[in-house]
Design brief:
The chain has 6 helices and 4 strands, in the order H-E-E-H-H-E-E-H-H-H. The chain is mainly alpha-helical and 244 residues long.
Length: 244
């Protein structure tokens, strides 16, 4: 039987439709893998912190927040983290290992009862018997071989800026800054930046989240990015430790 041009066109269209449906069925049955979790962030983080281009604000993971009893947190594998340095040789953490993590109890609406209240950071700070063991393990993560007393186990987003107290993503062994005298303990100009950011937040001069993003991205440029280069430091909280 001879098939006319019009019938051939109809049959060709039908065949194409059958093939298309078959392909969709095959894809559905085999399953589709979800995108992998960014390195350094847990699968439950929201939002995640991926490694951005330098100078770009980062989205920061949310940590578990203050705990009634703290436990030693697992650190990244030995030698898996690499320090970054600015042109002025100031140390910055590895973004994959230490993207920062925020304290869910601290929000723009709770500032007066959290970070802007005297004594808040002392209430949530993990004990040294926990952090000292984490510090030793984290030094191995970063390959830090200098004296531990000259390095600070630093909250990337400090407690006074609403950083999570003991999330491993928010803590790193920060090596000494330029001009350090060996054996003199940490010299950390980042502390001054954090104090100025806290003062600006509590005075309503900047937004909490913007300050957290700026300090997590690059603490050396945070004040400039937020237009706070002339900001004075916050009044010393007698219940707080340096660098909180």
């Amino acid at each position: 039987m001879t098939i006319g041009p019009r019938r051939r066109a109809v049959l060709a269209t039908a065949a194409a439709l059958v093939l298309s449906l078959g392909a969709c069925s095959s894809n559905s049955s085999s399953g589709t893998k979800s995108s992998p979790t960014p390195s350094g962030a847990s699968s439950g983080s929201s939002p995640s912190a991926s490694a951005p281009a330098d100078g770009k604000a980062v989205a920061v993971p949310v940590g578990p927040g203050p705990q009634g009893s703290y436990t030693v947190q697992k650190q990244p594998p030995q030698g898996s983290c690499t320090y970054r340095y600015t042109k002025d040789k100031q140390p910055l953490p590895d973004r994959s290992c230490t993207p920062g993590a925020t304290n869910p109890k601290v929000t723009q609406a709770t500032l007066k009862t959290t970070i802007c209240r005297s004594g808040y950071t002392a209430d949530i700070r993990p004990p040294t018997n926990i952090t000292s063991r984490e510090k030793t393990a984290n030094a191995a993560s970063y390959g830090y071989t200098g004296p531990l007393r000259d390095a600070e186990y630093d909250h990337l987003i400090s407690l006074q800026l609403g950083g999570d107290p003991n999330d491993a993503r928010n803590l790193w062994v920060q090596p000494p800054s330029p001009g350090h005298k060996p054996g003199a303990g940490p010299n950390n100009p980042k502390d001054s930046v954090e104090s100025k950011l806290k003062a600006a937040i509590c005075a309503g001069k900047t937004d909490l989240v913007k300050a957290q993003q700026a300090i997590a991205t690059d603490w050396t440029t945070a004040l400039q990015v937020l237009g706070l280069t002339k900001q004075a430091e916050a009044s010393k909280d007698p219940k707080a430790e340096d660098g909180e």
